[in-house]
Amino acid sequence: MRQVVILAGGKGSRLRERLGDLPKPLVDVCGAPLLERQMLLARRHDFGKVLLLVNHGAQHILDYCAERRNWGLEVECVDDGEPRGTAGATLAVFERLADEFLVMYGDTMLEVDLTRFYAHHAGDSEAAATLLVHPNDHPQDSDLVELDGEGRIAAFHPYPHDRSRYYPNLVNAALYWVRRQALHPWRTAQGPLDFGRDLFPSMLRAGLALRGYNSPEYIKDIGTPARLDRVCADLRSGRIERASLGRPQAMVFIDRDGTINHEVDHLRDPDRFELLPGVAEAIKRLNASDYRCCVVTNQPVVARGECSEEDLRRIHDKMETLLGRQGAFVDRIDYCPHHPDGGYPGERPELKVRCDCRKPETGMIDRAVRDFNGARARSWLIGDSSVDLETARRAGLKSILVETGYAGLDYRYWAAPHATVPDLGAAVLFILDTYPRLLAYCARLAEGIGQGAVVLVGGQARAGKSTFAGVLRDAILARGTGAVVVSIDRWLKSEPARAPGVLGRYDMVALQALVRALEDGGRRPNAIDLPGYHKLKRERIESVDAVPLASTDVILIEGTVALVLETRATTESHRFHVEIEEEARKERMLREYRQRGATEESALALYLARFGDEAPVIERLAMGAKKVTMLPIREPETVAPESRPERHDY
Q1: Which residue in 176, 166, 127, 123 sits closest to 146, CA to CA?
Q2: What is the pLDDT of residues 102-159, one digit of tens each?
């Protein structure tokens, strides 16, 4: 039978206005005392015994437990007589402790999957204790915990910190699984003794193994009125309940180099690590949401012998410190140290292997999803390369391409993103604001789209066609119907083969033949081979990818001239024209040309030529199509759908 030790002896002096004469564990949290919420949590996770260590206001606690009939638990209250500190009070009841027990502080509101926590503790039979640790938004004034590569505690870093150093952002959350026998050498310790400040560092110095359990779950102290009010707000909003790893978690995976920090070829020196502008604010927005924020990064510099694991930890410590100074944190950092190819001076042969974690393999994603009970269908991957997009596709995540770093122009894979945006800040705004609103609109559109339908999505370049098509696909899939997006940009001709005009840039014969094949009912092919178009080489590449099809799948064909394609009268078809305000589209076009190496002058010339070439044709094609106006991604308070007849704005 599992035992929990609840340290319930606090006075709650700073909560006197809320408590009156009651002890701190009986403070009201949205209609129920904190102690009751802790007892019910323990009961949900099959704890049968509670050792309640009381002191101030002990009789109030005894009376309340009796009134609640101990919640059906075997409760033993012990008044230790005098303040001994958290560890001292526990050591004073050594003979009453189970072989393994959970320590819970009586002034913390928590929603933790205690069963999952125990499984992690039980997996290391040599650990004297396992501490729940997590990052926070103020590591610079917190006591920090450092884990080694095996998840064991390597060091404690008490506040204040050396400003010349960078530290990992992990704090002791004050929830522990402890093995009783490991406490034996400290049984007779004199004076007040605290777990975090005294006992655990002493155990580490004595050579005992302590394990860290990095969990993003909710655990906050209620020691001041302001903290109590924050906890109550989180409880009323449902945030606390949603935080438990017993519930599937939405996750955002973020690539590191070129997405979080400036791209540096094979970064190996912390001095060269620099956050990109706006990154901390973007991650801070994720922290305030229900998304778990995880970094996943390939680091072949380790296998190549160019950077040690210690150097890599220093780089990540710098990243966490810089983020923390701006009130942001990542819940988890995973990296792959492997590299499949040999021949580098100083390389490490044991790491020159093909593994399951080097992106686009999904090992890092899979482990994080397992550890955090991730919900893949609600999760995203943000990155700057085609490798990131392919990783997301294989892992079953939605993806966003940022135009920092490689900006997707590495052309190692051909997976398409849900959206292409300038930077991480815009990606987070898309996830938190634009996508939910656009999905709600597309859900209404999807109600009128039947199985096997062909949907044509046209509009000028960089107006948001692929984003709209991708979200409409998600809405159709949510209704239980298969859906596939095909971009006609794959059928762009190589530059020497082009004819004048926008239509002359595409292989229109092949595209019309594709439509005929896709609308041919039960004779639709089981798969189609897809070409690719290399923007830097301005070259068509045949058969780079394939997409499986079912006869009932909705086919969404998106591209600049998609609306010129014809469907048979017997085919259910839908036509959408996507537009965006011209200044926003212009900036997108100019940014893309600059990424391809154009000067400001030549980028503007290309934009003007494209506008004169495409705009009249696209406007004619838009006649008879449903218009959808995409709004630029802006700060949430400045984004508002604008009401116009016969169109909807997102």
Answers
A1: 166
A2: 999 999 999 999 999 999 999 999 999 999 999 999 999 999 999 998 999 999 999 9
Cα separation of 241 and 382, whole Å?
27
For the sheet containing 419-421, what is the strand order?
332-336, 292-298, 251-254, 380-383, 398-402, 419-421
Tell me the catalytic residues: 255, 257
3-state SS of 460-521 is: CCCCCHHHHHHHHHHHHHHCCCCEEEEEHHHHECCHHHCCCCCHHHECHHHHHHHHHHHCCH
102 neighbors 114 (Cβ within 8 angstroms)? yes
Q: Which of 565, 588, 581, 580 is nearest to 519 (CA)?
A: 565
Q: Which residue has the higher pLDDT, 366 or 265?
A: 366
What are the beta bridge partners of residue 577? 458, 627
Q: Environment class of residue 239 by beta-carbon count within 10 Å: exposed (0-12), middle (13-18) or buried (19+)? A: middle
Query: Cα–Cα distance between 284 and 287 in angstroms, integer?
Result: 5
Predicted local distance difference test score (pLDDT) of residue 491:
97
Residue entry with tokens 């004779």: 523
What's the pLDDT tens digit per position in 4-61?
999 998 777 788 888 888 888 999 999 999 999 999 999 999 999 999 999 888 899 9
Residue with tokens 């903290």: 227
Angle at 134 between CA 129 and CA 140, to 5 degrees: 115
Task: State how far the Cα of 464 lies from the Cα of 632, in Å rounded to an integer.
Answer: 9
Map 388-425 to HEC letters.
HHHHHHHHCCEEEEECCCCCCCCCCCCCCCCEEECCHH
Strands 647-649 and 398-402: unpaired
Q: Which of 15, 58, 378 is nearest to 224 (CA)?
A: 15
Q: What are phi and psi of 631, to 5 degrees?
A: -85, 145
d(CA 277, CA 42): 44
Q: Report whether 297 contacts 335 (CB < 8 A).
A: yes
Dihedral angle sign, alpha carbons of residues 173, 176, 182, 186: positive
How many alpha carbons lie under 13 Å from residue 213 in its C-beta half-sphere? 29
SS3 of 550, please? coil
Strands (E), 560-620: 573-580
How crowded is residue 2: how many other Cβ atoms within 10 Å of its Cβ? 18
- Distance in angstroms (rounded) separating the CA atoms of residues 464 and 444: 19
Place of tokens 């096997």: 452
Q: Which domains does the chain have, with CATH numbers?
A: 2-243 (3.90.550.10), 248-435 (3.40.50.1000), 448-650 (3.40.50.300)
Question: What pLDDT sits at residue 521?
Answer: 66
